[in-house]
Amino acid sequence: MKLHSILAVLVSTQVPVAICSALQQSLSSMSQVHGHVKNVHKAVESYNGGIMDLVKLSYASNNLDRAIDEAMQHNSQREPLDADEFEHYSKSFDEFHPAVVETMRALGRKASHFKSTGSKTGNRIVIQAIKQRQEEFLDSIRKSVHEDNVTALDTGCEDIDSAFRDTYDEFWL
Q: Any signal peptide, and if so, which residues (predicted)?
């Protein structure tokens, strides 16, 4: 009987550990994406028109793309987050929003510089690609949370959409 009780305790403690591990991995993935968004922002801010600046921007964008792929893969492989887990994840997601908005605004501020160096079209394509990846990432998050929490995620996305539209307009005008 003692052995049975010990096994029951061990089995019951493994479930929360697995849940915590999934939440921790989700938070880690979000943190990695957030860090790479910041790196893209730095690369945009330091862009002065040279080849090396384009290489840095390309490198930062590619790293962001890989981080998004990894986060999306993780989101597709785990169970949906429950309400408590979502609360933690939502805080991380809310910290992520301003970084994306500021990166888009930085691109908008640099639009005239990109135009004068002849890289307007290339950067417009980059903006479209970032927007597409951001939408794919958000879709993967929506699929990995309970339906009740999707609205909470979507509420904060208007500022991101607005920043993308404003920045894209800067490159078209």
A: 1-22
User: Rounded to an integer, what distance in angstroms lies between the CA atom of residue 171 and that of residue 39?
Assistant: 21
Give Cβ neighbours of residue 110 (< 8 Å, ≥ 6 apart): 44, 45, 47
Q: Please list the residues that pair with 81 across neighbouring strands.
A: 145
Q: Which residues lie below 8 Å from residue 32, measured CB to CB, with a gap of 6+?
A: 67, 70, 71
Checking if the pLDDT of 57 tops 90, the result is no
Confidence of residue 39 (pLDDT cuts 50, 70, 90): very high
Distance CA 166, CA 168 (A): 6
User: Of 32, 143, 33, 11, which Cα lies nearest the Cα of 77?
Assistant: 143
The residue ranges of every structural domain in the chain are: 16-172
Nearest Cα to Cα of residue 141 among 35, 29, 32, 63: 29
12: confidence class by pLDDT, cuts 50, 70, 90: very low
User: Which of 23, 14, 41 has the alpha carbon at shortest distance from 90?
Assistant: 23
CA torsion 150-155-158-161 (nearest 10°) is -20
Residues 6+ apart with CB under 8 A from 44: 57, 103, 106, 107, 110
Per-residue pLDDT reduced to its tens digit, 77-99: 888 887 788 888 888 888 888 89
